[in-house]
Specification:
Layout: H1 13-24, H2 30-36, H3 42-54, E1 58-60, E2 67-69, H4 71-78, H5 81-94, H6 98-107, H7 114-124, H8 129-145, E3 149-152, E4 155-158
């Protein structure tokens, strides 16, 4: 089971990617990162730091709450935009919670509603319904922004590569209250 901070609440994936750039340029606190990525305060900076941690770009020190690049994050800062896009797609296919959402999208060619995505997130972490719906908006934004999914008639559809997506070891199937 994930914690609530393991479900992203930073809506703009390319701003999440800029966290690595900010750290490479010496900005390591939530306030500094929030300012660097665009007039966001300390709280938003923390959300974006947590999101960058979720996708493997950074590590956050427990005692100091400062960030440092992972090996992947350091390499990512040296990629051109096309390589960064490809790397972000790989990371979203690899890490939770996006991995489970993508697996469910691929299992349901009829698409998923935002409420379906919220239920997946609730299976992964202890989220209230209203929180899960907000976080589902973030996750779906990421997937559409990077070209792994698209919205049609209020349903989210997978449109990424036909690569295998491994499910979480603890989850072989995802079930929904709606019976999907």
């Amino acid at each position: 089971m994930l914690t609530t901070v393991d479900i992203p609440q930073a809506d703009v994936l390319w701003d999440v990617a800029r966290v690595a750039e900010a750290i490479a340029r010496g900005r390591v606190t939530a306030s500094e990162i929030g300012e660097y990525i665009g007039a966001k305060g300390q709280r938003q900076g923390l959300y974006y730091m947590q999101a960058a941690r979720i996708i493997g770009l950074i590590e956050i020190g427990e005692q100091t709450e400062t960030a440092q690049l992972t090996k992947f994050g350091l390499a990512f800062t040296r990629y051109n935009r096309a390589d960064q896009r490809a790397a972000l797609r790989r990371q979203l296919l690899r890490y939770e919670p996006t991995r489970s959402v993508i697996a469910a999208l691929r299992d349901h060619p009829e698409g998923l509603s935002r409420a379906d995505v919220a239920r997946i997130l609730q299976q992964l972490a202890p989220l209230a319904e209203s929180t899960a719906l907000r976080r589902a908006a973030t996750v779906t934004s990421w997937l559409t922004e990077i070209g792994l999914a698209d919205w049609r008639e209020d349903r989210l559809y997978y449109c990424g590569p036909a690569l295998p997506v491994q499910r979480s070891p603890a989850r072989n199937t995802l079930s929904f209250a709606t019976g999907l």
